Here is the input.
Amino acid sequence: MPAKPSPTPRRRAGCLLVSTHAAGAMVGAAGAARLEGRFGAAALLRAGLLIETATHLVLALTTSAWVAGVALALFSVHATIWGVVVSTVKARLVPDVLQGRIAGVHNLLDFTGVAAGTVLGGFLARWTGLTGPFWTAFGAMAVITLVAWQRLDGGLEAGGPARSR
Here is the structure.
């Protein structure tokens, strides 16, 4: 039986990126509830907007797999915490009879955005080069952060508006 070829540096870098992403998700899942209890939903969502914006900037600028790996690990921590916080806020604010519908619409928009962004990012990368989608995402997230910042107020916290059953 022939020996397996050793992994190429490119393959090792890919494994590093996937591994750091997974490790970040586990860290985020382990600490999300504690962080939300300490800092509140609005603060975590604002921090998440900053982390996501910074991640796109770092990925646009770096050529190092190690730097990209650290950025993706931090992004993964953020994405997991974001998911927990958004789910908690939705559960708190949406009436029980609408939970399924709201979750369905949220998932439809979420996954449609991922699919459309993947396709558009591929076309953009072909047209502008590999960093083009990251620069575009950085610009878009900077605008989203500015627009969303003020809207993330105390109404998201446990003492915010109560939902009707």
User: Anything to note?
Assistant: The CA atoms of residues 46 and 57 lie 17 Å apart. The first helix runs from residue 9 to 39. The helical segments are 9-39, 41-61, 65-93, 99-128, 132-149.
